[in-house]
From TrEMBL:
CDD domains: HTH_XRE. Residues 52-99 form the HTH cro/C1-type domain. PANTHER family: SSL7038 PROTEIN. PROSITE patterns: HTH_CROC1. Pfam families: dnstrm_HI1420. Transmembrane segments: none annotated. GO terms for molecular function: DNA binding. InterPro entries: Cro/C1-type_HTH (IPR001387), HI1420 (IPR014057), Lambda_DNA-bd_dom_sf (IPR010982). SMART domains: HTH_XRE. This is Putative transcriptional regulator.
Length: 108
């Protein structure tokens, strides 16, 4: 029986357009369950797809500090996240969470 040869999957190789990058970030935000390091890693994937050096320049950060911040091993500051999102040409948006009306508390 022939051996199966596998290679490591790198999502950054598949993020080619701004729309794909935005959809990937949106999916990661939904799956993160409050894990900020997970979101940082997703932003790192997108930054690698776009070019880490260029993203670092656009964000006003050093390439080394950007790699560390977006490694998924730490939680970067919100200021860094906002700079990176802007440098990637992405936007954050918010919407109301679905609230069951029977659980909603009246405003007094």
């Amino acid at each position: 029986m022939a051996k199966t040869i596998t290679t490591r999957y790198d999502v950054a190789e598949h993020l080619r357009t701004p729309e794909e990058m935005g959809a990937y970030l949106e999916a990661c935000l939904e799956e993160a369950n409050g894990d900020a390091a997970f979101i940082a890693k997703a932003l790192g994937d997108i930054a690698r797809a776009k070019g880490m050096s260029q993203v670092a320049r656009d964000a006003g950060l050093s390439r080394e500090s950007l790699y560390k911040a977006l490694s998924g091993e730490r939680t970067p500051s919100f200021d860094t996240i906002l700079k990176v999102i802007d440098a990637l040409g992405l936007k954050l948006h918010a919407e109301a969470a679905h609230v069951n009306n029977s659980e909603a508390q009246p405003v007094v």
